[in-house]
Amino acid sequence: MILVIGDIIVDEFIWGDVTRISPEAPVPVVSVERIDRRLGGSANVVRNLHALDTPSAMFGLVGDDEPGRWVHQRLAELDSDDRGVITKTNDRPTAIKTRIIARHQQVVRYDREWTTPAQATTHQALLTSLDALQENASATILSDYGKGVLTPDFIRVLISRLKGGIIAVDPKPEHTDAYRGATLITPNLMEAAAMAGMAVRNDDDHVEAIAKVLHERLELQYVLITRSEKGMTLFDGIAHHHIPTAARDVFDVTGAGDTVIAAFTTCLARGDDALTAATLANHAAGVVVGKLGTATANWAEIQAH
Questions:
Q1: Could you point out which of 101, 106, 179, 227 has its C-alpha 20 to 30 Å from the C-alpha of 158?
Q2: Dihedral sign computed on CA atoms, order 5, 146, 167, 79
Q3: Could you tell me if residue 24 is inside a domain?
Q4: What is the pLDDT of residue 249?
Q5: Rounded to whole angstroms, what are the CA distances from 263 to 3, 36, 211, 266?
Q6: For the whole model, what pTM was predicted?
């Protein structure tokens, strides 16, 4: 089992078509054809783990509202243990990101979210749930969307408690120092550069320097930097490995980072070496960016890619 801790978001997609411009303002009028929901934010990592046949447990916050109840229902459908999903009352409704898509193009996105840090009592409730499930876990993913669950102090407590197992972090630059002692991080190039306090350049030498700085500063085993059209760079403390992109068509990069950390961590937890794990994660990312919306990749798709 892999534990996932972080910010739960409901991804809502409104699909339609545009045939005219509004007479009220110079904006397109979208004729809605369908609306669907998907688990987003940190919960998208759970979706990706499920696609990889990997059991999971989710830890995070939802509101005492219909979207929050839907999150619990959807996690149950994915066979993900939801004992660590804390339901908050009126002060913190479930976070929702709504994307309006017409003719396969995103027209606009609007967010309903609350980013104030979670209260100490909430963090204690999360730790209590963690203690009940930690013994059966092969790895833990800290999926930091910067929405208040993974505060720096809470991250440090988690890393201290989880010491000895695989601790994978999808990071936010503003929390950089808190990740010290984790097993690995999977930032994109812009995040990695900000975390290292360096310029953003996508040439190999510069990326290698960024990875080395992060590896040493945060006492990590692995740094895996995603580099868009240039693929990924893995640094294992000894050598840098540049992995060319596996993407054939890019329609939507939404949630690709969740796919990368889910696949990389799953492979490490089952005993793959880091380069094999990174290569498979790269292929998984190549699959999902060829789909619209927050997507997943299964083993058959990864092997065929």
A1: 227
A2: positive
A3: no
A4: 60
A5: 14, 25, 20, 5
A6: 0.93
C-beta atoms surrounding 104 within 10 Å:
9
CA separation for the pair 63, 88 (Å, rounded): 5
Hey, is 234 helix, strand or coil? Answer: strand
- Split at pLDDT 50, 70, 90, the class of 109 is very high
Q: Which helix (H) or strand (E) holds 141?
A: strand 139-143
**How many structural domains are present in the chain?**
1
Inside any domain, residue 23: no
41 — alpha (psi -120 to 50), left (phi > 0) or beta?
A: left
**Rounded to 10 degrees, what is the CA torsion of 137, 56, 81, 38?**
160
User: What's the domain range around 297?
Assistant: 2-8+41-93+114-304
Find the CATH number of the domain harbouring 271. Answer: 3.40.1190.20
Active site residues: 258
| pLDDT on residue 254 | 66
